[in-house]
Design goal:
Layout lengths: L3 E6 L3 H5 L7 H8 L11 E4 L4 E9 L8 E9 L3 E6 L11 H4 L8 H33 L5 H33 L13 H67 L10 H25 L4
Parallel strand pairs: 1-5
Antiparallel strand pairs: 2-3, 3-4, 4-5
Length: 299
């Protein structure tokens, strides 16, 4: 027999109180909490005695110009009923109800419908991982042409996205694991029979793969950050070399003019000993330094 499905979008507390399930205060607080961009919520799946309460975060990005957000979908499940609460994100979008509309008729029990939600969420995280890898590859290819501030900004943004994605994917994986461990059975009512648990096992494996690939993405990004820091250090070394060369070009003529500017009584009275010799030394030492610095490729 199929489960009864109730779908709500941004419900008020009065609508939640009108549900056929008698929800406790903690469940009502979870369902009524505002969604925002989904970054403050945390995926979970907990037993509340007669029913389960879950929070699912769905990664979503409308286009490249908008930041990634996590659309929140709350669920309340008992043996015969599933309630979905879709909350609007910062751009007014909600999780599509096509996820449950496409559930086959022979798998319309509440446990199967919850698995469908979790499995599609796992696929959404895999798609997010692919997009993050593509952005990292693009950044690596364009690293030489980007300025240091732009590179740092993109690395920081990608790092935050990876950390948020891993946190949410890990929590979703933990929720799937609780189904496999049998910790979410509703007393004598078997919400997750063996075929459903086997399907949750596949979802769990997908989420494990997702977290492992997110760890790889974080390591790749750390490598890019180290490369960028070494590039900045190298550029600073080149600047120091040029500044040192410029200071040397000024230092030697200053020494020569200081020496010939001393008051030698009875010495250096002829112009060629003073003006001529000092100019000749300045020109010779300057040309010699320029040739040496050029040979060393410091300038």
């Amino acid at each position: 027999m199929g489960a009864r499905w109730i779908d709500l979008v941004d419900p008020s507390r009065d609508e939640l109180h009108g549900l056929p399930l008698r929800l406790d205060a903690e469940a009502l607080e979870i369902l009524a909490a505002p969604a925002g961009d989904g970054r403050d919520a945390r995926p979970l799946l907990d037993s509340h005695g007669r029913y389960l309460v879950g929070v699912i975060l769905w990664p979503r990005q409308s286009d490249e110009s908008t930041p990634l957000e996590y659309l929140e979908l709350d669920v309340v499940v008992d043996r015969d009923t599933i309630v979905t609460v879709r909350k609007s994100g910062t751009h007014g979008e909600t999780v599509s109800r096509d996820v449950l509309d496409a559930c086959p008729a022979d798998r319309s029990a509440a446990g199967w419908m919850l698995h469908r939600l979790m499995d599609d969420t796992a696929d959404a995280y895999l798609a997010l991982v692919d997009r993050l890898f593509a952005e990292i590859d693009e950044l690596e290819d364009a690293l030489a042409s980007l300025s240091a501030p732009v590179t740092r900004q993109r690395i920081v943004r990608l790092r935050h996205e990876i950390l948020h994605a891993r946190r949410n994917a890990s929590a979703t994986r933990a929720a799937a694991r609780r189904v496999l461990d049998g910790r979410l059975d509703l007393g004598a009512d078997e919400l997750f029979p063996q075929p459903v648990e086997a399907a949750f096992g596949d979802t769990y494996d997908t989420l494990v793969r997702t977290t492992e690939e997110l760890d790889i993405a974080r390591e790749l990004l750390s490598g890019l950050r180290d490369y960028e820091q070494s590039r900045v250090t190298e550029a600073q070394n080149e600047i120091v070399k040029k500044l040192t060369a410029a200071a040397s070009l000024v230092l030697v003529p200053t020494l020569i003019t200081g020496f010939f500017g001393q008051n030698f009584s009875g010495a250096f009275e002829d112009w060629w000993w003073t003006l001529g010799m000092s100019i000749a030394l300045i020109v010779a030492t300057t040309v010699g330094q320029l040739a040496f610095f050029r040979w060393k490729r410091w300038i």
